[in-house]
Structure formats: C-alpha cells, structure tokens
TrEMBL record, chain A:
Family recorded in the similarity comment: Belongs to the peptidase T1A family.
Record's keyword terms, sorted: Cytoplasm, Nucleus, Proteasome
Sequence ranges assigned to domain Proteasome alpha-type subunits in this UniProt record: 6-28
Cross-referenced SMART domains: Proteasome_A_N (SM00948)
Main location: cytoplasm
BP term (GO), one: ubiquitin-dependent protein catabolic process
Alphabetized PROSITE patterns for the sequence: PROTEASOME_ALPHA_1 (PS00388), PROTEASOME_ALPHA_2 (PS51475)
Physiological role: The proteasome is a multicatalytic proteinase complex which is characterized by its ability to cleave peptides with Arg, Phe, Tyr, Leu, and Glu adjacent to the leaving group at neutral or slightly basic pH.
Top-level taxon in the UniProt lineage: Eukaryota
Protein name (record): Proteasome subunit alpha type
Gene Ontology cellular-component terms listed: cytoplasm; nucleus; proteasome core complex, alpha-subunit complex
Quaternary assembly: The 20S proteasome core is composed of 28 subunits that are arranged in four stacked rings, resulting in a barrel-shaped structure. The two end rings are each formed by seven alpha subunits, and the two central rings are each formed by seven beta subunits.
From TrEMBL, chain B:
Cellular location(s): Cytoplasm; Nucleus
UniProt subunit comment: The 20S proteasome core is composed of 28 subunits that are arranged in four stacked rings, resulting in a barrel-shaped structure. The two end rings are each formed by seven alpha subunits, and the two central rings are each formed by seven beta subunits.
Classification via Pfam families: Proteasome, Proteasome_A_N
Name of the featured protein: Proteasome subunit alpha type
Primary localization class, coarse: cytoplasm
Functional summary from the UniProt entry: The proteasome is a multicatalytic proteinase complex which is characterized by its ability to cleave peptides with Arg, Phe, Tyr, Leu, and Glu adjacent to the leaving group at neutral or slightly basic pH. The proteasome has an ATP-dependent proteolytic activity.
Transmembrane segments: none
Coiled coil: none
Domain of life: Eukaryota
GO biological process, one term: ubiquitin-dependent protein catabolic process
InterPro entries named in the record: Ntn_hydrolases_N, Proteasome_alpha, Proteasome_alpha-type, Proteasome_asu_N, Proteasome_sua/b
From TrEMBL, chain C:
PANTHER family documented for this protein: METALLOPROTEASE TLDD (PTHR32194), PROTEASOME SUBUNIT BETA (PTHR32194:SF6)
Top-level taxonomic group: Eukaryota
One Gene Ontology biological process: proteolysis involved in protein catabolic process
Function (record text): Component of the proteasome, a multicatalytic proteinase complex which is characterized by its ability to cleave peptides with Arg, Phe, Tyr, Leu, and Glu adjacent to the leaving group at neutral or slightly basic pH. The proteasome has an ATP-dependent proteolytic activity.
GO CC terms of this entry: cytoplasm; nucleus; proteasome core complex
Organism annotation: Ostreococcus tauri (Marine green alga)
Family, per entry: Belongs to the peptidase T1B family.
One of the Pfam families matching this protein, by short name: Proteasome
InterPro entries with a match to the protein in the record: Ntn_hydrolases_N, Proteasome_beta4, Proteasome_bsu_CS, Proteasome_sua/b, Proteasome_suB-type
Subunit architecture: Component of the proteasome complex.
Signal sequence interval, chain numbering: none
Protein name per UniProt: Proteasome subunit beta
Amino acid sequence: MFRNQYDQDMLTWSPQGRLHQVEYAMEAVKQGSTVVACGNQNCVVLAALKRKQSKLSSMQGKLFGVNERVGVAVSGLSTDSATLVKLLREESVREEFVFGRVASPSKLASLVSKSLQISTRESAGRPCGVGLVIVGSSEDTGCQILQTCPSGDVCQMWCTAIGARSQSARTHLEKHLDELKVATVNKVIHIALRALSESNVDSEELTSEACELATVESNLYVSKSPEEVQVYLDQL
Amino acid sequence: MSGIGSGYDLSTTTYSPDGRVFQVEYAGKAVDAGGLTVGVKCVDGVVIACEKLVPSKLHKPGTNRRTRAVARHAGVGGSGYTPDLAAVADRARAECANYKSFYGDAIPGKVLAERMAHYYHLFTLYWSVRPFGCSTLLGCKDFDGYHLYLVEQNGECAKMRGACIGKGKNAAKTEVEKLKLNEITCAEAVKELARIVYATHDVKDKEFECEMSWVCDASDGEFVRVPEDIAEPAREAARVAAQGDAMES
Amino acid sequence: MIPRRTAHERVIGPGVVPHGVDPEHDALYRGRTARGTVTDEVLRGVRGRPFTIDGKAREKAPATRTQTPYVTGTSALGLKYAGGVLLATDTLACYGSTKRYKSVERVKRVNDKCAIAFTGELSDFAYVCDLLEELTTEDFCEDDGTTRDAEEIYQYLTRVMYNRRSKFDPLWNSFVVAGYDAKGEAFCGTVGMIGTHYADDHVAAGFGNHIARPIFREFYKPDLTEEEAVEIMKSALYACVMRDKQMMNKFQIAKVTKEGVSIGEPFAVPTEWGYEKFYNPTKFSPGGW
C-alpha cells in the first residue's frame, strides 16, 4: 500500500473512484482477532478468538448480547466497537419500548450501517475501524447473520468470518456450506470451532479461555460459559 | 484527465483552471465501477433491473438489494458505492414521508426526482462533505402516469424513457435504444432487461444476480420486486441466450 | 383571545399590522425583545408585525390545548372467536349531540395482521391513521419479510397516547386493536386516551365498555364459530344502540383472520321501542309522578 495524495482523508475520491481512507478502515477490521458466524434457519452460532493486551490482563470480550434474541460479534478497533454496541443496545431498548417487541437483526444492522455511512461522508471524525457480525432471529424470518463493514455496507450471509487470518475460516465454512444448512446446533458449533481453529495462530490448540461462543436458538441468544466451551472443544 | 495530480482535484470546492470540478467527476468513476442498472418506461409501468455482483458463495441470494422502494408508489435502483446508495434511498424515503405528511398526497415523480437531485447537489458544494459515489434511477407512479427519472451523482436530473448507469452502460444503452419504448409492456421489458443485463455482464466478475423491480398496473401501482414466476423464466432465458452468444464468439 | 385589528397595506402585505395603527400594542413590544431594544425607528420600518392574537391575554392565561372533542364516535367493540377477531362500530360521528355524519367508517385496516376501531374525536383518529400509514409504508419499503403485527401496533398506540397525555395535549380517542400477534395467535386489546391499555378475549372502548362487555362475558367461549360471534356482536350492538344516545342503528363489523382484514357492509339490527318504560319513563321510578 503506497501513499498517494488521495488517501489523506475520507472525503477525497481517487481518480479511479475509490475512497482510500475507507478502504484503510476496512484493513483495521483485519487487525482484530477472528470471528466466525454460521448456521441456518433454526440456529446460529457465533465463535470468536479472544486476545489479551498483556499477560497480566484479562481477555478482551468479543461477543455482546444486544437483546434476548440478538447478539453481535466485533472485530477491529475495540474502542470503536464499544460505541456501536451501545448504539445497538439503545436502539433495541427503544424499539422494545415503542413496539413491545425486541428489534429484529436486520433492522439493527441497517441502523448501524446508516451510522457508519454518515461517518464516511462528513469531515468530522473518521470511519469506524470495526466490522460487526450481527446474529439473531425473528418469528417472520428465522435466524439471520448480517455483516457490516466500515464503509457502511451491510450484507446478509449464510455464514461469515472476519478479522485476522479469517480467509482460512471462510474457506472452511464454504466447504461445509451445504452441511450447515441442515445441521443441528451441536454440529454447527463444531463447524464453527473448526473454522475458528483454522484461523488460529500457528494452528495452536484452541483453549476454552481464548475462545468465546454464543448461540441463537428458539429465539434466544445464549452466551456459553468457558466450561461449556471446553465440553464442545473436547468433542472436536 | 489533464488535472490528475495537479492539486486541483483534491476538493469539491476547487475548480481546475479549465473550469472542472474533478472530485465530482471522480465520484462518477465510482458509479461507473458499480454493477449495471438499467431501467425503461413502458406503456403500463416502469421496470428497473440491476446487475448485482455477488462477492462470494457465503452471501445469501436475494438479499442485500440494490433496488429499494422509497414509498408505495416509488422506488429507486442505482449503481456505484452501495452504502451511499442506501443513504440516498433513505433520504428519498424521508422526502416521500415528509411530502405526504405536509400535502396529504403521494409525492409526484418530478418533485421527488428534483428533491433527490438537490440532495446530491448539496454534497458537491462544501469541503466538509464528499459527493455521493452513486447514481440512481427512480421509477414512480403519480397522478399523470408512470415516470422514470435518472438522478446522477453530480445533482443532475432528467426524465427518461430508458436509462443505463454503471458498468457497461454504453453497451446496454445501444440495446435499450433498439427497444420500441412506445409500445413495450412491462412483461416484455422484464425479459428484455434480463437479456441486456446478462449480455453486458463482464465475465471477469464471477457471480452476479439479476435483480428486478417494477411499478406497474400488474403490481397495483406499487413499487415491488418482480414476482419470481415472471422474473425467473426471464432470467433463465437470458442466461441461455448469453451462453449461446459466448459459444459463438 | 380576540384577533387584533389589521391593516392591509400594500407595502406590508395583508394580515400584518404596521407600527402606529395600534399604539397599545406597540407599547407592549417596545424595548423588550431578546434581540435587543426595539425602538420606534425599528417599529416604523416597513416590516410591521404579524397578525396575532392579543398578546396581553396570552400572557395572563396558561397555554391550553384541545379540551373538548367536537366530532366524535362512540363505542367500539372487539371479540375473539375461533378463527379470528371481530371488530364492530356504528357508522356515526356526532357533532356534540347532533347526529351529524352518518356514514363514517370507524374501522381502519392497518395491515394484513391488524385493524383498529376508534371512539372519540374523528380528526384525532385521522391523525393516528396518518401515523400508522407512515409505519406501514416504512414496513413496505424495508421489504425484509417482517410486518408489524397487532400486538406491536397496540404497544405503539399506547406509547403515542401516553406521550401525548404527558404533554398535556392528549389525542381524544380510545381504540380497539384486533389482529394477530407474532406467534400467530389472535389478539384483541384496547388503548385508552391517556395510554391505559389491556388485552383480553373481548374488549370494548367508550360507553360500550359498560353495556357490551357484560354480554361478552356471559356468552364468550374460546371456541366460538364466526356465526356465533357475529350473533353475540349483534346483540351487543343492539344493547348499545338502545341505551347510548350517541349511537346509531347502522353498524359495520370487520373481521381479522389469517387471510387478512375484511370490513363488512353496513347493516341495521331490528330494534324495539315499544317497551312500557319508553311510553312512560317514570312509571317504575321511585318518587316519579
């Protein structure tokens, strides 16, 4: 990546019609550790590799519950993600207050996308250097996986992986795409954990300490405890 | 592009010595890089078709749509930078709702197109914002029938009978010009547009979806996606025709 | 609250009072605006001031808003049955006590899953309809496979009503909301003028709450057929029209089923005015003569 005169701020289009600053913000997503999401109509699984700042610190959480049936995984600048998670939770509470129903994942995703897009078009601030994977379910649509990126793009996915070395996880998921569409929760968890280990540093063993897991099933978002994660890891 | 690198092309508030605003033109490049959008006004409605590139197998088909309804009677489809497209569509929705609450009636196509054009234009005026990297086609039904408008990223707006934006727009335009726009019906136009989208698709971009929406008599004047039982045969025929062409050449 | 004199001067335009026409009012304005001292010179300019109500009277009295409804509908009834929910109203909107507008549809289809009926101020209901219209248009545009169900509309209305009452500017309505909830079960609820709300197997808003609900309580059972439900509804409407002077013998029954909303044609019920008490209203009253 070379410096050029068009990459100094996100308000400048390059002669090829690109926004370099926004593209650089997308690179920031790859600085974060891996997040995997996969599933089908009936259940979705979120899995993430956690990191810690130093040996003395605790692990940095990557999965956040938004409401009783929607959760979000983040990768990238963790401080930026805090703002977005807050935004999601606030909107969710508002929706619940006004309509008595928890917000659907697609509504939440389009809200985040709006906010991200605005930060790429105005001189104040900078694009958020964080990618989100929003998972959840609603009665009408079943389970959904939505992925956002710093440009404000939002995509509905069968399954996805973002963050550092996520390509190998994506390849793994792509291989098991058909299997996933009919898989049970346990099976989906196994596939997700395997995909995650593909992206792990130097194919190190996954540990329950470094691995975070959550599921959405029967309209309920459940974050798994380290003990539960260990059980799943042992099954691999 | 004589201005490249000369420093006159870094801000929307800078003219080049020969009187051009390069930043707006560069934003136009983003439009040209996006998948094709083509729309025609038929005798009984308006059809808009998009070539939606699918980046990977992991993306769900039929989602992440590029044509969106902005009111019951109006919708947009566009090419270019997709987050911008969403922002513009959102604004169009707000304009429709605002007009409705103020005047108590659905917004006419001309007014909506001009308001959208104003919005686009606004973002070409100040250093603190950037021009949008997308152009839109607006299909609309109002008190005097169906209309198709082209609203461009520089704030220009024109009423059209047929229009193409995005990648391969010139090739698509020659195809659209061949259509008999005075007598074509929406049902026929769906087939023709699918054919054009498949024919102009660049084989270098792997996967794509042909997304089609319309506002017409058959949809009761509502902007909706073309029903699958009409859209899918049209796509299938276009797919076969495109493969045939590829074999010949 | 008397509009003041105006001068229609060409320079200033209609409805604007120039300086000098009304010394009393000029005095009121002189030297006391937030933007600085207003002198006679400024007032003498061509700007004039807009037509307004009496400034002094305004200062004396606190701000007041809608305190009396003008054109109103009375009772609205809702009843669940085995295959859906029924809504019933008459088609009258009264101007005070005058039976003024006799063909008013007091039921609104919100979407395929929900319909509402109202009591109270007609114009406030029109406003609420606009709000719901915006909501459903948003749903239509989003096109994400979800639509707002009856329970959400019900909750939304409670929020709107409570919000307005908290501004001391209530919408003068109560509603019956009928339809289906997210789980696909029939839903029937009522929302009051200040945001009070409850859901039940049968509900009534307005005066009908006192007249129709005893009938509903007596005859309701969860496995009512549509015909039975319509019969109960008709007897409830009969009871209402005999006792409620704001009610008229022309009704509409709407039903919400899995297939959607259908609002029925207006009809009348046979009435009986030959009761002895109608001939001699005081006959059985203690102390009557």
